[in-house]
Amino acid sequence: MLSKGSSCCCSFDDYKLTTEWLQNQTRHQPKVAVICGSGLGLLAEAATDKQTFRYQDIPNFPVSTVPGHEGCLVFGTIEETPCVFMKGHFHLYEGYSLCQVTFPVRIFKLLGVDSVLVTNASGGICPDFKVGDIMVIRDHINLPGFAGQHPLCGPNDERFGTRFPCMSDAYSKELRTLALDVASDLGCSVRTGVYCMVSGPNFETIAEARMLLTLGCDCVGMSMVPEVTVAKHCGLRVLGLTLVTNKVSLDYSREEKVNHDEVLEICKMRAELLQKLVSTLIGRCQQNINTH
Ligand SMILES: O=P(O)(O)O[C@H]1O[C@H](CO)[C@@H](O)[C@H]1O
Ligand code: HPA
């Protein structure tokens, strides 16, 4: 697979080859894909009848280079729903093109997945948010996209979707409602809001953080938006959940300095709750599809 800047470097045949390779190795036929963000690989542990593939063994798959991203694809079942989990995903700051970052999403589509659940770690911009809060993503701001770093730049393959996809409903209303219902049933209070993607890898300056607050962002992170954009383009239902792992400094007098170890530490502390939320949701998510 060749990297050509921000335009797509994968042909339909590349996607087909990887899909067929996986189909030849597994009898699982996933309906739900879960993308596990930094330190959230534990979400896959709720599945039964698991079959695991290391990214480096899957043709065309990028490999994870960031601590907290284990780098394997896990097929399994949750409450009778066949699922596939990405334990670790890819980022622009690792040097991958957005075509590589989003490569797995189109594989999920070709495998027959209908819903993608994306999880990640983020910094809380909204002053009300606390470390450890979970936010159901209502919408996003694609800041790299404004600068032309967009996964759908380049020739459009109509077999996946239209040239000009609508993004006003990127995050499924049904799934967001379901997530809020499940959270309430589990006695877990969750937030709702807007996630902004920055390219990273540095954490924000205070001036940048203030700008994001002014723009209406509640949380900021360095991932997810490309995957969601490609998922929506190819007709997948999307739910996004972000874990607030740190409060972003909006004030020059604040002494705390964010670092990735702290991000992973908070993920570890909240992973069990997130796992419960995700697995309960998956069970109900398929019932929800079956009744529509
Ligand atoms: O978005 P995920 O991969 O969950 O991780 C977040 O945490 C890392 C920074 O600590 C960045 O990768 C950021 O995007
Ligand atoms: O504060 C943050 N900024 C950007 N990405 C992040 N991922 C976790 N925390 C942060």
Shape: globular
Could you tell me which ligands this complex binds, including any ions or cofactors? 1-O-phosphono-alpha-D-ribofuranose, hypoxanthine
Number of strands: 9
Largest sheet: 5 strands, mixed, barrel
Strand order of the largest sheet: 5-8-7-6-9
Compute the number of structural domains: 1
CATH architecture: 3-Layer(aba) Sandwich
Count, helices: 8
CA-to-CA gap between the ends? Answer: 39 Å
Q: What's the helical proportion of residues?
A: 25-40%
Average pLDDT, all residues: 93
How large, in whole angstroms, is the Cα Rg? 18 Å
CATH topology: Rossmann fold
- Strand fraction band? 15-25%
EC number: 2.4.2.1
Keywords: Glycosyltransferase, Purine salvage, Transferase
Domain Nucleoside phosphorylase: 31-282
Protein name: Purine nucleoside phosphorylase
